[in-house]
Amino acid sequence: MKKEIVSIPGMTQVKHLSRAVKFGNMVYVAGTTGRPLTGGEMPAGITAQAKIALENIKAVLEAAGTNMANVLKTTCYLADLKDRPAFNEVYITYFPKDPPARACFAVGDLAEGVKLEIEAIACITG
User: Fold this and answer.
1) Which residue among the candidates 104, 110, 114, 121 is catalytic per the annotation?
2) Residue 114 Ramachandran class (φ > 0 left, ψ -120 to 50 alpha, else beta)
3) Which residues of the chain have pLDDT under 70?
4) Confidence (pLDDT) at 9
5) Pick from 47, 70, 44, 45: which is nearest to 57 by CA?
6) Which domain holds residue 64?
7) Whether residue 123 lies in the annotated active site
8) In terms of pTM, does the model score above 0.85?
9) Of 106, 119, 38, 44, nearest to 74 (Cα)?
10) What DSSP line would sit under the chain, residue for residue?
11) CB under 8 Å to 126, separation ≥6 — which residues?
12) How far is CA 80 from the centre of its chain?
């Protein structure tokens, strides 16, 4: 087996990282923020950023041949732990049944205007 870099046509590329790496039947999604994968403005609020970040993860997983139902683990970094209730409201809509294992904690200052970053590990079934 060898690792395969997952990308989406039109996705903004970042020279120093891969958005996701596929290895065997596993997909490792890099930390994803609330900035659209195709570029553009990032909204200011935690709710909007959470939706975009989770949609970004969903798109990358689909490009890798899997989906949100196959996410095994997420790590969620919040700039402010006070945003956790609003973040959770969005998060549960993406994992309504059998949610993945999760770590969620405040890390203080992320990049300017970034309220959260989410990493994910998923498997490819079938």
Assistant:
1) 104
2) beta
3) 11-14
4) 76
5) 70
6) 4-123
7) no
8) yes
9) 119
10) ---EEE--TTPPP-TT--SEEEETTEEEEEEE-SS-TT--PPPSSHHHHHHHHHHHHHHHHHHHT--GGGEEEEEEEES-GGGHHHHHHHHHHH--SSPPEEEEEE-S--STT--EEEEEEEE---
11) none
12) 18
CATH code for the domain of 70? 3.30.1330.40
Query: Token pair 């958005």 is at which residue?
Result: 19
For the chain, the domain total comes to 1
**Amino acid sitting at position 44:** A
pLDDT at 13 (0 to 100): 67
* Separation of first and last alpha carbons in the chain: 18
Query: Six-digit token pair at 112?
Result: 């300017």
Residue type, 54: L
Exposed e or buried b per residue across 36-62, where buried means at least 16 C-beta atoms within 10 angstroms of its C-beta:
bbeeeebbeebeebbbbbbbbbbbbbe
